[in-house]
Write the structure tokens for this entry.
Amino acid sequence: MSTKPVSKRAAAPAAQPASSKPSSNKPSAGKPAAGSSAFVADLDAIRARARRHIENGAITASYRADRDTVVRLLNEALATEIVCVLRYKRHYFMASGLMADSIKAEFLEHANEEQAHADLIAERIVQLGGEPDLNPDVLSGRAHAQYVEGSDLRDMVKEDLIAERIAIDSYRAIIDYLGDQDTTTKRMMEHILAQEEEHADELADMLDGWTGR
């Protein structure tokens, strides 16, 4: 009886039996997930720091801005808003002429929004451990914008537009200064800046209507 030649190919390895327990990518109990160990360590430090200096309220050790400078800038912005409220209120009461009714409504709306800005700023100053300076003797000197009465309705609109343009530039400078050092104050100022830009756009439209451009 003839003998079959042995194949020169190596026999395929026997298949391994499937594991009865599926492998899991989850970390074992008691171990942090990959990449989270640094945060867990930071969280322990955050918890420890939170127990210290609790008299500082919302201001913790991670606050990186110069608080004295931020409070000073916010008091300047607060004075600016209050001066704008007073100027808009005068213009509201003093507006007269054929176009007065519609423009008076804009003056009053802007005055109310500027007052809301002032309230936001004052609250933030207190959160930062400062005091909102509402002394009437120093408000006009600290404000970025000026209190100009205006000689007639068109002049009132022009002076309000100039004041809004001043606030836009000075508030943008404050935002640039804050950067990522105080993101809460930065977001507040960005919100206020957006409304000041709306005011300026509306006032510019009013002047366009007068000049026919």
Notes: The mean pLDDT is 84. The radius of gyration is 33 Å.
